[in-house]
Amino acid sequence: MLQQKIKQLAADYADEFIEVRRHLHAHPELSYQEEETSKFIRSKLDASGISYEVKAGTGVLAMIEGKDPGSRVIALRADMDALPIQEENDVAYRSANKGVMHACGHDVHTSILLGASKILQELRTEWEGTIKLLFQPGEERNPGGASYMIRDGALENPKPQGIIGLHVHPGLELGKLSFRKGRVMASADEIYITIRSKGGHAAAPHLTADTILIASQLIVSLQQIVSRNRNPLSPSVLSICSIQGGHTTNVIPSEVKLMGTFRAMDEGWRKKAHELIRKQAVGLVESMGAEIDLHIDVGYPTVDNDPDFTEAAWLLANEFVGKENVQETEMRMGAEDFGYYTQLIPGCFFRLGVRNEAEGIIHNVHTPRFNIDERAIETGMGIMAWLGTSICR
Fold it and tell me: Is 139 a catalytic residue?
């Protein structure tokens, strides 16, 4: 039986791909700089006899043909970039690159897809169709590596009937999976604001425009855009996450910079909010006597799991790990460039449990102490291979 063979190979190869994960974790690379990571992925594909092409600079598109290759085409995706975070975990495979860490689990995703590819290649005479493997760069940075993979033809020749991706979930226990049909993650846009005046002495604020005060007023004012203008039943977040200006106690700086993010679950509200942010920011800053430069970098769309495709994946997951180990995942205000794929073809983006409270593996993604229970890699390899061979049959 194919399912049992996949499970057995996932168990057999688990240690190998835990070591792959540790290598990747120790050698993280930032978005669009994944040169060594790309070479490493290609070396593993070479070892398995899997053909591939380089896409999107450092991305890799591989393809495995089973029986009757034209009967069905499914894409499996993993991301490979790391974050600008200094790791605080005391582990043997701690990041060797200062200030760079796989704090979002992309090392895990890549290792899982490499493991699944080895399983799929070994069993290629026992499943039908073609499976495309997308190892994409730059998920953590606009405009998103998915957009470049699409630009370079990753979803063409042949076009997949659907695409599957997973993400580690530190809030979900080891051995568990979670799925959600429909909208599952938010859009994400970046906000960059510069406030300028001539600056001046702190003892004579009347002779200039106080950029610090204006920035403070603007931060508070922007929060009212979400609280007073959006539908309360539609989740949305506007967070200013950086304020830079001034260097001493008695000088009003000539320039203050703000950076932040805007998240939404509704595309209509998203566009309206952009207009409100521009109008409110320009009006407030200019009314207080300063000048403003404002740029909204439009980023990732929402992630929308196709209901039918996700239902099929969910049922297959029930078969593979047991219905009691599959949950409905929560809607999240986090963003993922996987949304670019789901705009074009049916997609399913699901969660893999990596939490182990007994071992202190409890820290969230994008933190210096994020880690996983590495036994999740076996589960991830198996479920990705199983979905790739079995969905849309």
Answer: yes
